[in-house]
Amino acid sequence: MENDLIRYRVRLADPAGHRYAIRLTIPQAAPEGQALSLPAWIPGSYLIRDFARQIETLHVRGPQGPVEVSKTDSHTWRCAPSAGPLEVEYVVYAWDLSVRGAHFDESHAFFNGTSLFLAVHGQEDRPCLLELTPPAHARGWRVHTSLPPAHGHPGCARPRGFGLYLAPDYDALIDHPVEIGTPQCVSFEVHGAIHDMVFTGVLPNLDLARIAADVRRICAAQIEFFEPLTRRVPFLDSAERYVFMVMATGDGYGGLEHRASTALMTRRADLPTLGGPKAPTEGYQSFLGLVSHEYFHTWNVKRIKPAAFAPYDLARPSHTRLLWVFEGFTSYYDDLMLLRAGVITEADYLRLLGKTISAVHRGGGRLKQSVAESSFDAWTRYYKQDENSPNALVSYYTKGALVALGLDLEIRRQSGGARSLDDVMRLLWDRYGRDFYRGRPRGVAEDALPALILEATGTDTAAFIARHAEGLEDVPLAGLMADHGIALRWRAAHPRPTLEARWRAADGGLLLTTVFEGGPAHRGGLSAGDVLVALDGLRVADTAGLERLLDAHRPGDTVTAHVFRRDELRQYRIRLGRPPALECTLSRKA
Questions:
Q1: Which among 294, 282, 360, 332 has a CA at the least distance from the CA of 99?
Q2: Is 413 left (phi over 0), alpha (psi -120 to 50) or beta?
Q3: Least CB-packed of 99, 241, 288, 499 within 10 Å?
Q4: How does pLDDT run across 37-55, given as a tens digit for each residue?
């Protein structure tokens, strides 16, 4: 019965003030006093974000009137004992233009359930009704979400999408983000499943047909990869369609996976237009790689999970040493699926792979932290990076992708080409993923991977994983790729002498954002945060100006650098270095 369900009503209350008004109706509160909480983090983004800080007001009423409520920690409230139903009214401030939170203004509304929906403690397994009400300030707005409409309930979502939606439990409720507005949309069907693409932002002359055709090929390749016989999509057990929600901005990039949708942010310039070039630009390939990455998560992370995430504990960090498997393997397959789908060429793929190898080798952190340690420390280090992070950390995304590549090549080598990492992914899907949302949730144990690889391929990779994932050794890609006819070479990105630092424009000079350990800038005394204003007595106003000054020198020359550290002018002598050969190029041997 509808009256027995936990019900959430979302009203788009104040576009100028960026506020949602939420009404939560609890048919039967806990007699000892009902506890309510908002998640402290969102799955897929491993940082405590304290979404509850955006709840501005919260009031509770029972059958006899107002109910006293007190906060017991940073994201939990407890209501005084009250017999019968409770009605909770609260206001959420939503001005986070990202894939993780909630955003609302006069142009659109977007939210993740983790930002809006209080969990009713002890009743998280109960079905939930979500009511979305049409805005008073705008006409023509439509709702886009993968959450199924509440079929059979009075008030079921109507053609524009406003009305009732039904989630089987709280975990499902918060795993279907919602976009409301007037975006540009395109739909396509793959193996019997509807996929919607929803583009929000100012996007003149967007080539929707081209994007849909390319993304359809990517989706088909991934479905056929995991289900070569049945071609069955995994999300039809929890949704009627898959939704790509794309926010286009001037400089944004990122994605967050959900069980039947993904939220994406991309640069406007990376999307193709009807009047633009026909050959795929590097920016468009980057966008397609992001789409491929998040769609692959439909299998790997949303259903195949580490045991630490089965189920999620959204009140506190959930540590695992396996993010290099779940994010790293996904990062390996995202561009590989572009190649298999035929939306990029082999030369494009080798260029993208070379960029990943270069990125990993640029940072000295890979010699201090393993990808297993990076996975475990994601909460306190990877998601809280600072100016020294390239010297201290390694990315479980990028080096995880290289470990996956190495494992794939090693399995192929040992099995004479009969087996590959593909066999491992299909075993993971068979054992841990296919039935995850059908009452059989099971996660991958921390130490399970070597045995699973052995079972799937007959290949013993325990020592490989110990050296390159649990340990600090670089993956021996040059030799492994040579066996497959690919030459790996290193070269300097440019001939000029180097400071080995990163910088960006700042008032009056260049702000050093990273100083690489052991490089000329580090040895000469420069630090991240310094503003470089002059070199050899000549003003440094921008990157081009600095490069012109460096072009006049040779490696080994000593120059005088003037910097502001805070408000103090300081002088340093820097011996310029030889440009390091850290740019990886890959090519097929003739």
A1: 294
A2: alpha
A3: 241
A4: 999 999 999 999 999 999 9
In angstroms, the CA 196 to CA 373 distance is 38
Which candidate, 98, 104, 206, 120, places its Cα nearest to that of 167?
120
Tell me how far CA of residue 35 lies from CA of 61, 276, 391, 574, in angstroms: 14, 55, 44, 61
| Domains of the chain from N-terminus onward | 2-182 (2.60.40.3650), 183-282 (1.10.390.10), 299-484 (1.10.390.10), 501-575 (2.30.42.10)
Contact predicate 444/338, CB 8 Å: no
pLDDT confidence of residue 138 = 81
Contacts of residue 568, defined as CB under 8 A and 6 or more positions apart, other chains included, come to none
Which residues in 417-544 belong to E strands, given as ranges? 486-491, 501-506, 509-515, 531-535, 538-539
**Taking the model in full, what pTM does it have?**
0.96
Cα–Cα distance between 103 and 247 in angstroms, integer?
11
Distance from C-alpha of 430 to C-alpha of 411, rounded to nearest angstrom: 20
Q: Which residues contact 507 (CB under 8 A, 6 or more apart)?
A: none
CB 378 within 8 A of CB 328: no
Burial class (CB in 10 A: 0-12, 13-18, 19+), 378: buried
pLDDT digits (tens, 9 = 90+) for 481-528: 999 999 999 999 999 999 999 999 998 899 999 999 999 999 999 999
Q: Which residues of the chain have pLDDT under 50?
A: 1
